[in-house]
Amino acid sequence: MRMMLGKELRTLRLQQRSRAEAEFAAGADAFTA
Questions:
Q1: 3-state SS string over 1-33?
Q2: What's the predicted TM-score (pTM) here?
């Protein structure tokens, strides 16, 4: 078991949230345009 697993999971979660927020912003821009 690696010791970095918790940090990697937290980083992955942050990346997924950032991507979801970016996609939502792009969708909102397309909807209002």
A1: CCCCHHHHHHHHHHHHHHHHHHHHHHHHHHHHC
A2: 0.55
